[in-house]
Amino acid sequence: MVQDKPIAQQWFSTQKVNHGLYLITEPHYYWWNRANLWLIKGRDRDLLIDTGLGVSSLRHHIASLIDKPLLAIASHIHFDHAGGMHEFDHRAIHEAEAEALRTGDDYEALCSPEHEFVLEEHFDLLPYSGFTVEQYTLRGAEPTEILQEGDVLDLGDRAFEVLHLPGHSPGCIGLYDSQSQDLFSGDVIYDGDLLDELHCSHIPTYIESYERLKKMSIETVYPGHYQTFGKERYHQILTEYLEVKRKPGCPSALHDDFSTIRE
Length: 263
Ligand SMILES: [Zn+2]
Ligand SMILES: [Zn+2]
Prior knowledge:
The protein has six helices and 13 strands. It has helices spanning 58-62, 79-82, 98-103, 203-214, 231-245, 251-262, and strands at 13-18, 21-25, 37-41, 46-49, 70-73, 91-94, 145-147, 152-154, 159-164, 173-177, 182-186, 220-223, 229-230. One zinc ion binds at residues 76, 78, 168-169, 187.
């Protein structure tokens, strides 16, 4: 169905967080699933963490901010993060979700019709004339770099370690700067409803990722959704999740049984 909403003059919004960091969002898309896209400016190269829905050109939007080689990274395959990956010449994703990016797998990206995640009412304005949610699809793109646990992305003046933190989806990563103790966390940890019951989620694995995060020194979290937060809130979110999910008879135990039966 063709929507009769107005077309957005400007699809993206950019905010300079500090000297080397920009936050880009899609303000006309549903707040609950609106992703934070992070542009990190390094000395020798830049990193773009997540690329949004892919319904408007992020590459054009950030062109004036880019003067060095740029690597676009998908924190995971979900459509709100990986939708614009195809636009960038250099693109990376964790190996567990590389195939889904290569083929443009709508099911793994959560944007096939049965997921009912891409809905007309989630767009306040249209990204372009003739846009419909029925035509929405994840555009496949061959990853030029496959990321694994422990890989280091060196920008010259700062470096990020790739942390494989599955649970929300199998290929979720975080990027950690051990100098500043900044964590770019994607959908692994944010200050809002955590999604751990998707078809691609696995609660026992999520718990393991959180046990690991609990031992890490973190100063600031730059999450995939909602607001940036500090050390205290970080530990609160981890502790609350672990307290609820570790209980006997909790969804994690049920989920475990269920996945055993299914396999
Ligand atoms: Zn996600
Ligand atoms: Zn997300």
